[in-house]
Amino acid sequence: MSDVTRTKHGRPVHHWRRDLVELAALFTAVAVADAVANMIGHGPEGPALLVISAVVLCATVGFHTWWARRHNHAPPTADDTGARPDTAGQRTGPPTAMERAGALATESSAGATTLWRMRTTVRDEPGSLAALCTALAHGKVDILSLQAHPLAEGTVDEFLLRAPADLPAAEITRGVAHAGGSGTWIERADAHDLVDAPTRILGLATRTALDAAELPLALRQLLGRCTIRSLPAKAQGTASGPRADKPADGAPVEGGLEGEGTVLRLHAPDGEVITVERPYLPFTPTEFARARALVELDTRLGPRIPRSQDVLTLAEGSSITVRRADTADVDAAKAMHERCSQRTLGMRYHGPVRDADRYLNHLLSPRFGRTLAVQTASGRIVGIGHLLWDGDETEIALLVEDDWQRRGIGSELLGRLVTLAVEAGCESVYAVTQASNTGMVAAMRGLGLPLDYQIEEGTLVITARLEATPVNSRLPYDQPQGRSEQR
């Protein structure tokens, strides 16, 4: 028997009409079964008919049970319970465009959803956020996470949203605008954005603590699509010692926000200035504080790179070591320059060969990218590969000493650098060389990745799209396989 009840003024309400219908149906089924049994029980085929009657009766009981359960779990209407319909959060009048689009998207997408990151500014007054959430709910948009950044002129709210796949971003922003949001920005998100902010920031801090070259990558992952530049103290006309505008304890000064909040500047104790630009979206004070904390962590820990290395055996039998390099290897790199021919240096640096040594401090600095060095058993560096952060793009460059060329060193360096780029989340890498540099062209083709070529006045730019991790490439601190052994 079904006994669906609701409370009204504190008392249970019984659905007596439904109960009477169910009782009548049950007694009718029993009466029919009894009449059939009396009529045919003494006939020649009576037992078979009785069995059939029992089956029909069981089917009736099963149908009754299904009917009762179905109506037990159905939500009662206002007419059933006598309660007034809940009007809280509901808007009167015709549905908005976002509501219509959300309903259509829900029907057509059959459960398919899209993740969005959205930022908007609301008035700093009670009910503003509630109105925004109500507008999103009308569009069938689910709020997965929310961060609020109070400002003087209002509150900046950052949302991670899950919306029907067929609901356009323009409809979401239009509905947010009707609910009082202003300066709304929205872009696609992915599964990595599902990690909560404290966990993500702790992970970025850990990576920065292990490797100084991770700071630009950590800032980019923290702040989104942005351009990061680093200006050393000497380039600003200051000495290499402490700056006059830093505190005496060596902690970095705060820096600040410029350009209507789209430019973020951070100062390090040695006078270096890190500039982060994001023209499409102003930085919030919270983002500035997080970025400043990462820079302070980096400066307090000082220079550091992973010291693991791989020992490889070339096809000819010689052993080489591949390891990370930094500014401590400037003298060894200059010595390699002296052993290289003018042609080799010219293909690498595309400028006056006599100025090659001037680039090394910049190229070997972990602030501007990652460098891999190849050294012999005697400790002499015979090859260097650079992965350089160039704004939103990533450049790859190689230099192998003449006597060690065509032994597979360039391909080994290139594969490992591309793997580092994949690990860093780069979408592509490019190499600038000369059209006559067949060795570099062959090494890029050996990656097995889609390549784009641009030739201008003898200069060849080869861009590799990192749609998949290349084969035969490992990080210098990965677990070796086969021909290499870890030290």
From TrEMBL:
InterPro entries: Acyl_CoA_acyltransferase, Bact_Acetyltransf, GNAT_dom
UniProt keyword annotations, A-Z: Acyltransferase, Membrane, Transferase, Transmembrane, Transmembrane helix
Region described as Disordered: 74-108, 234-257
Superkingdom classification of source: Bacteria
Name of the protein: GNAT family N-acetyltransferase
Membrane-crossing segments per the record: 20-41, 47-67
Native source species: Streptomyces durmitorensis
Domain N-acetyltransferase: 320-472
